[in-house]
Amino acid sequence: MNRIKKLFIIIFAISFASHVLAKDAPASFADLAEKLMPSVVNISTTTTVVTNANPFPGFEFPPGSPFADMFKEFGTPQTRKSAALGSGFIIDEKGVVITNNHVIQDAEDIVVRVGGDKEYKATIIGQDPLSDIAVLQIDSKEKFIPVSFGDSDKARIGDWVIAIGNPFGLGGTVTAGIISARNRSIGLSRYEDYIQTDASINSGNSGGPLFDMNGDVIGINTAILGKGGSIGIGFSIPSNSAKKVVSQLIEFGETKRGWLGVRIQVVTKEIADVEKLDEPRGALVASVAEKSPSDKAGIKAGDIILEFNGTKIKEMKELPIIVAQTEVGKTIEVKVWRNKKEITKKIKLGRLETSSDFKKKEPKDTKRETPEISEIKSLKIIVRPLNDNDIKERKLPNQTTGLVITNIGKNSPVDYLNVGDIIVEAQKKKIKSAKNLEDILDTVLKSNQKTILIVIYNNQNQRRYIGVKLD
């Protein structure tokens, strides 16, 4: 009797599981794909590329030389047309198309193919390299079939999704899969919060939509992992991140991102321990730009931003995204951890695109002086004093003092640093000499502390806090 009962339970469990799977897994994507395909477009662009075939660039043969005529043709710049393919989707019946910026960057001609056979010229409404988003306008008075953005915050790992695009120039292609991860960062830009999917995404899918099962766009397919083709890991810009960029590009032709004026870094366990913070969280302010919104509000290097405009910052990478999406000119509250307690500051946000942070700075070559050097035995490094030439060359604040690392020994506790990094603080005290640093290290070691907090300028002149474990 017990065997019959067990057998009945097993049969019931299998039947129930089959019912659940049949309910959650669509029997077919055909109806959804048929509905969405008219809104997905193929994009082809043409760019003129100028090349110089001269095998000896920068060198010219003397007039009358027998080699002058031989290589004459090489000295003439050669032009050729370069074509690129991508995908996009229509969000307005008037023919507004969303795609990736890298699909249309530097394009001279843009052709949008709708429904697989109808071709239209398109112009650029706006483009944003930082988010890799561009908005196009189809040059036609026809009415098109649009799709809508969905709420990407509601998308969960394991949800079914479909991608439609133009892989390898094959035309409208539908692939299906699930969301395999959220909040991915792969090092392409400062604003990364990608949706990861195993729906096949290949070269040519860039700019195409990632749909949920309601037919709403929850992502813009942007990148793949690996070379050549799909290996089951693709990345999409979440719709909630894209919507604000798209609306600004349509309204202004450019973006208007919020700007704090700070450089930040990850709060490590060592740094959290030194600062007596309950756990590694928030974003550590490594430096504050002069006359920036943060500078005016009293934010200081060494502060840990725990909350921004009511949103708690769990990881450092969350802060730039939230700030960028906040309205320029808005006054917000920021909660920071300073001197082992929480304080609140009010900051009026500036605009990133008009800030000094947005402009690239070109380094200048200058001669170096021959300095004195010292060994810091407890860190197993050799250093020299920071001099006026260093300050001028690296454009550091005029009153900066510190030590330039010239050698890092084997098994050094700071072996992850680089020669050329500058130690400017230790335990929140300015470093003026090698002896100054050694005295601070001795004090820490005698107090049986395991970690010392130092501040450096790295080779990119970024100010960073480092928690160093001492032997």
UniProtKB/TrEMBL annotation:
SMART domains for the chain: PDZ (SM00228)
InterPro entries hit by this protein: PDZ, PDZ_sf, Pept_S1C_Do, Peptidase_S1_PA, Peptidase_S1C
Entry keyword annotation includes Repeat: yes
Keywords, ordered alphabetically: Hydrolase, Periplasm, Protease, Repeat, Serine protease, Signal, Stress response
Signal peptide annotation: 1-22
An example Gene Ontology biological process: proteolysis
GO terms under cellular component: periplasmic space
Top-level enzyme category: hydrolase
Protein name as it appears in the record: Probable periplasmic serine endoprotease DegP-like
